[in-house]
Prior knowledge:
Chain A has helices at residues 10-16, 18-51, 55-70, 73-89, 95-120, 124-132, 137-167, 179-190, 194-221, 228-240, and strands spanning 2-3, 6-7. By secondary structure, chain A is mostly helical. In chain A, strand 1 (2-3) and strand 2 (6-7) form a beta hairpin. In chain A, helix 6 packs antiparallel against helix 7 (137-167). Chain B has 240 residues and is of the alpha/beta class. Chain B has helices at residues 40-47, 72-77, 94-104, 110-123, 139-151, 169-184, 196-202, 220-225, 230-239, and strands at 2-11, 14-24, 29-33, 55-60, 63-64, 79-82, 157-161, 188-192, 205-210, 213-218. The interface between A and B is medium-sized, with 25 and 31 residues.
Amino acid sequence: MEFLGLRIDMFENIWSYRELFIRGIWVTLGLTAVGYVGGFILGLIVGIGKLSKRKWIHYPAKMYVDFFRGTPLLVQILLIHTALIPSMFGHSLGFFVSGSLALMLNSAAYNAEIIRAGIQSLDKGQMEAARSLGMPHNTAMKLIILPQAFRRMIPPLGNELIALLKDSSLVTVIAATDLLYAGKIVAGAYFRFWEPYLTVAVLYLILTFICGKLITYIENRFSNSYVPSSRKSIFSMRRSEPGGGLR
Amino acid sequence: MIKVRDLHKSFGQLDVLRGIDYDIKEKEVICVIGPSGSGKSTFLRCINLLEEITAGEVFIDGVKINDAKTDINDIRREVGMVFQQFNLFPHMRVIDNITISPIKIRKMSEQDAEELAMQLLEKVGLSDKANAYPEQLSGGQMQRVAIARALAMKPKVMLFDEPTSALDPEMVKEVLDVMKQLAIEGMTMVVVTHEMGFAKEMGDRVLFLDQGLLVEEGTPDEIFSNPKHERTKAFFSKIL
């Protein structure tokens, strides 16, 4: 059976490589998770830094964003893996360290912009009201501004998660054994390209689909719906963890 | 209690306040009136440093507030502020809007703060709304919660920045009634307002500001019945 050169029987061969693909999925998920969590925390710091009135905080934060948003991720991965890490440690620390570090530094730049915009989109009366009650700036940020801004950041932060998951495929250039790498191995072994890469594409699609569902769930959970039971659960979360759903 | 000396405020090239001197005594209700752009809101916002003071001095209970050594957060704890746009925290229930500052800033126990909040809600007539979210309230109710929130810090003075200007007409009275009650209880109040009726009835002194200057001040009787300055007369001829 053949369609546009696609051979259905090839999928049996791919099935025999399933463990490679499954391991690839875990590597991809691991790189994405570490990159995303690190990128969120670093992005929060850089984003708030960009809002600072102090020049010595604002400008480094701005330069950070300009650099990591203005250069290709692929170049950043190569710089970190082949130059930065070896010159710091004398040898490579493996693709996972370099790869997740590059993804983290890169996504932090995008997250910083999302976080900055989310904070700036709030009415300035919110900060004024908090300050007028005697809250110091950082307390007001933590209790009043960030929990509200975070809700507005969920959709763009979700986009960022999906983008990062897909961008993580770039780490194959430093011989990471991620999902795309599994496809490459099979492609090389059989000298067939349609089926392995299609399999990879479908697997990425499934992963991003699951991420999308997760984001929708989080969005609903933190939405401004008036259903008392759901509002109550948000509230109890906030109560037990000051700082809102940020942690 | 509040001493304002030669207060200047500029936004870039624009001089909004051009030298204001005034003393506010304890338990006085001061109503600040004037045309829009006269600087009355800016004057109020300078009293708790929501606006940085360009020049001059403001003292509250003898403490110079625009001094580098003064912790502005300590000052603001003693100065309640009610905004035109209410500025309730939309992600918190009404009761948490009120208790958050006493708990986090005054280090009050949660139980005491909730008790205090319920007393204050009773006072503003909203005890049944403790568990509501701000979006579920009308404008008048939101503003009454905002007043309760400011009172929860047990301030020595309350500032009101056009508290009824964003309200539908039928909700103005419920807010003014709460303010009247406060005035009767002896709260020191500075009220920027367009409600001349409130100024006449409750004001101990009325300040007329125009173009960043304190043009005229006196008892409501003096200002409303017998304004001396041409600009005051012109203002009343336009609005009354």
